[in-house]
Amino acid sequence: MTTDPLTEMLRGLRLDGVEYGRCQPSAPWATAYPAKAEAQFHFLAAGNAFLQSSSGEWTQLHAGDAILLPRGDTHVLASEPGLPPISVECMARKRLCDGIVDLQCADPDSSNLLFFAVMRFNVDKRHPLLELMPEVMRTSDLAVSEPTIPLLLDAMLREVEMNRVGAGGILSRLADVLTATLIRTWVEHGCGDSTGWLAAVRNPEVGRVLAAIHLDPSHDWSVGELARHMGASRSGFAQRFATVVGETPARYVAKMRMHQAHQWLQEGQRVAVIAERLGYDSEASFSRAFKRIIGASPSRFREHQKMNGVSSV
Fold first, then answer.
1. With 213 labelled, which of 87, 97, 246, 269 sits at a CA distance of 20 to 30 A?
2. Do 67 and 183 share a structural domain?
């Protein structure tokens, strides 16, 4: 059975749970969520709420809705628009069960139940897929196109409601699957007549090449290797790739390799080790390539991390 390119690419896109929690706020309430390097996820299991995105626009949420902010943009959840919010970082936390915390709300109301998660993608925000995603992805907008979404939400609801051993681990797996499903459904049905990178993913020939690059981004892919994935000559492949993707194969491979290097730097790996892993003959040549793609040298990135405690340049 032939696997489509998007499925292959999603195989390499993983999530690690940083924090999972739930709360039962009593109206009127409003909670501000600051911007994070990680993705932010909310599931409204019971009650009603409003979401304010970073643009200031308000959207009403209903019980059963889940939202994903893939780039972790700042936002507010509230019982009604316009209320002064309290930062989620100022709220006390109590361990509820394995892997889940309970936000300590004043006068908890059992008719309102929200589940939240902070999740780290194994790629950074510069990844082509994350860059193209909308600020907010909502399950109710995509559930018609993907019947498994309501089933996943039902399973999450049961885990959120029951204080059972291992709930945190199960929720993390469900959130992982739901996020991959949301992304796939958005690409397949929620993008209209897309162009550029999304069009390339949907293209059977070019999509196979992108899948190979994304599944092994640290590999120094040659034009000949990639042409064989497409089943075309070197010249025919290079022209087709550039026409569909909008940049040359060499440029795209270089970007993906530096994205991988950026990720390794975030994980604390030394520059010399990364340069060796990527096959550079010196730290200097690697640093030049990194700066050309990312916009800052690895050493500057390191200094920025130490000074600010953040994971982006």
1. 269
2. yes
Nearest one of 31, 37, 180 to 116, comparing CA atoms:
31
Is there a contact between 33 and 40 (Cβ–Cβ < 8 Å)? yes
- 40 and 176 part of one domain: yes
104/23 Cα distance (integer angstroms): 7
For helices 298-308 and 249-266, give the axis angle rounded to 10 degrees: 40
User: Which segment of 17-21, 228-232, 233-237 scores lowest on mean pLDDT?
Assistant: 17-21
The predicted pLDDT at position 305 comes to 63
- Return the number of other C-beta atoms located less than 10 Å from residue 310's C-beta: 11
The answer to the question of residue 165 being in a domain is yes
- What is the model's pLDDT at position 312? 39
Euclidean distance between CA atoms 157 and 137, whole angstroms: 19
Percent over 70 (pLDDT), the chain: 88
Q: What are the backbone angles phi and psi of residue 113, rounded to the nearest 5°?
A: -145, 115
| The dihedral sign for the CA sequence 87, 93, 96, 98 | positive
Q: Which domain holds residue 54?
A: 5-189
Report the CATH number at residue 41. Answer: 2.60.120.10
Average pLDDT over residues 149-162: 82
Is the pLDDT at 250 greater than 50, yes or no? yes
**Whether 214 contacts 127, CB under 8 Å:** no
279 burial via Cβ count (<10 Å: 0-12, 13-18, 19+): exposed
pLDDT at residue 193 greater than cutoff 70: no
- Does residue 107 share a domain with residue 256? no
Q: What is the mean pLDDT of the chain?
A: 84
